[in-house]
């Protein structure tokens, strides 16, 4: 099926139907912040629910945590964020647009030059030697490159003037690392085991944009496996496959997903790979999988003075576990799902319907209850109150049944349950399938089970 999604169509549909609104809309918005509306919050919650089910509930030896957004600032000293979490920023003096110098070089060289490995001086020289102009205004009038701090700072203090800098966490991962010993002790988990977390992170991005793709406030779903060094490469490879399978299972097709192994690694990392998805803006990172060696726990041990070691219960050997990290943004995955689900289908009568082919497990509403006529609304509400005990339902009695089906197609509701005069006589309803548009008749008491089976993940 040809996908007709453009970023503009997705943004319009999201604003128009209540998936996502511009943040602080009545004040003219607040750049690159977005608020999830009634449909968006359901979609996003379902994304988190299926991720948690797959990686924690069904995960091998996996445990969840929910750590604070504000952490002891020493956490960020240990992790290296206070000194090195910055991007090389460069402004065009002519049009005042701001760019990441490494991105400009990578785009210019079509990905052949690994700019992230260059110093600022090397990047400035490359831009000069290759005569790279501003991609927006075409002039070549750059400011020098400066490092731009990505962590948001706030302050803590009871007396004015008595302030300590505190950071809004730029990743959730540190919440899992600092709780490694607590989780190991309280669960008595043996290596390898995993700690997962879903939560907000904040980054003062230089070039936010492309709707939900890159925002300054976002949610991450992170899964860290702690293991012995000898098992790490195997677990890293397994996690890559598991992450790819998850992306396919939620509805992203194989031909629009690919692994992108990193050439340049952080000094402590052994391997790193992104899974990229073919967004309407091109191939871009959906999630990352990193083999981080023992860096994280060693750093926290050094900075906190507390042992982060694990004692093997059989051999009594003490060791610092290796970490395999898998991290994916909720908003970024939600955007991929919105883009993939979108379709414009020409019907037999030559009308076009916009339909969101979400995986039913992720669709905001599972069922729309529609009385054929208004005088059937009492019976319809009775059916609604049975079904909404099981899953999110919506109710619509306004307009022709055809129009109501179209409205549900456009928000991706997989099933429309129609109440007609047979319902009063035989307690039967018709169920229309969003994708095939075929209808079947079922007894009211059979509907919940029928739908449960279809929406299982
Ligand atoms: P990118 O190269 O796109 O900036 P990153 O390599 O910095 O991403 P990580 O730090 O590995 O990303 O974060 C893990 C995941 O969190 C990313 O794969 C992405 O899904 C999500 N993510 C990171 N930054 C943002 C952001 N600013 N807005 C939305 N999602 C983000």
How would you describe what is shown here?
The protein has helices at residues 7-17, 38-57, 74-79, 81-84, 101-108, 120-129, 173-178, 180-187, 229-249, 295-304, 330-341, 377-387, 401-411, 421-426, 444-455, and strands at 20-22, 34-36, 62-64, 86-91, 98-100, 146-149, 152-156, 164-168, 193-202, 217-227, 257-261, 271-279, 282-291, 310-311, 318-319, 322-329, 342-346, 352-356, 367-371, 393-395, 415-419, 428-433, 439-443. It is an alpha+beta fold and 457 residues long. The chain folds into three domains: 7-71 and 153-339, BirA Bifunctional Protein, domain 2, CATH 3.30.930.10; 86-149, Herpes Virus-1, CATH 3.30.40; 365-454, 3-Layer(aba) Sandwich (Rossmann fold). It starts with 6 loop residues before the first helix and ends with a helix. Adenosine-5'-triphosphate binds at residues 171, 203, 205, 214-215, 218, 220, 285-288, 327-329, 331-332.
Helix content: 25-40%
- How are strands sequenced across the largest beta sheet? 3-9-10-16-13-12-11
Number of domains: 3
**Uncertain stretches:** none
Please tell me how large the radius of gyration is.
25 Å
N-to-C span: 23 Å
Average pLDDT across residues?
95
Ligands, deduplicated? adenosine-5'-triphosphate
CATH topology of the largest domain: the name is BirA Bifunctional Protein, domain 2
The CATH superfamily name of the largest domain is Bira Bifunctional Protein, Domain 2
**Total of helices:** 15
- CATH 2nd-level architecture of the largest domain: 2-Layer Sandwich
């Amino acid at each position: 099926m040809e996908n007709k999604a453009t970023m503009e169509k997705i943004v319009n549909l999201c604003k128009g139907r209540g998936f996502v609104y511009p943040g602080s809309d009545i004040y003219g918005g607040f750049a690159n912040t977005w608020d999830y509306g009634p449909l968006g919050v359901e979609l996003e919650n379902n994304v988190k629910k299926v991720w948690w089910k797959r990686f924690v509930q069904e995960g091998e030896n996996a445990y969840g945590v929910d750590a604070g957004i504000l952490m002891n600032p020493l956490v960020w000293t240990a992790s290296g964020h206070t000194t090195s979490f910055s991007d090389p920023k460069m402004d065009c003096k002519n049009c005042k647009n701001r760019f990441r110098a490494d991105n400009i070089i990578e785009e210019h060289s079509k990905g052949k030059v690994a700019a992230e490995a260059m110093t600022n001086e090397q990047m400035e020289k490359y831009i000069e030697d290759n005569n790279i102009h501003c991609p927006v205004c075409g002039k070549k009038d750059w400011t020098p490159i400066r490092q731009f701090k990505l962590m948001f700072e706030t302050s803590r203090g009871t007396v004015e003037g008595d302030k300590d800098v505190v950071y809004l966490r730029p990743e959730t991962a540190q919440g899992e690392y600092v709780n490694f010993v607590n989780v190991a002790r309280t669960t008595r988990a043996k290596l390898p085991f995993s700690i997962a977390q879903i939560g907000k992170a904040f980054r003062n991005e230089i070039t936010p944009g492309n709707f939900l793709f890159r925002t300054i406030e976002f949610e991450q779903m992170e899964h860290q496996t702690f293991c012995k060094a000898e098992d790490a490469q195997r677990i890293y490879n397994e996690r890559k496959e598991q992450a790819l399978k998850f992306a396919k299972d939620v509805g992203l097709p194989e031909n629009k997903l690919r692994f992108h192994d990193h050439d340049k690694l952080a000094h402590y990392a052994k391997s790193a790979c992104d899974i990229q998805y073919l967004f309407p803006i091109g191939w871009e990172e959906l999630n990352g999988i990193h083999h981080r060696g023992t860096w994280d726990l060693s750093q926290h041990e050094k900075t906190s003075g507390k042992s982060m070691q694990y004692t093997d219960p059989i051999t009594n050997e003490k060791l610092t576990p290796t970490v395999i990290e898998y991290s994916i943004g909720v908003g970024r995955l939600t955007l991929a799902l919105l883009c993939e689900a979108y379709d414009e289908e020409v019907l037999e009568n030559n009308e076009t319907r916009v339909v969101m082919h979400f995986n039913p497990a992720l669709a905001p509403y599972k069922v729309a209850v529609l009385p054929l006529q208004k005088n059937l609304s009492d019976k319809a509400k009775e059916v609604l109150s049975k079904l909404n005990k099981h899953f999110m339902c919506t109710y619509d009695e306004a307009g022709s049944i055809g129009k109501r089906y179209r409205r549900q197609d456009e928000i991706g509701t997989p099933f429309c349950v129609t109440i007609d005069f047979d319902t009063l006589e035989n307690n039967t309803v018709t169920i229309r399938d969003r994708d095939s548009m075929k209808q079947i008749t079922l007894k009211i008491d059979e509907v919940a089970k029928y739908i449960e089976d279809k929406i299982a993940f």
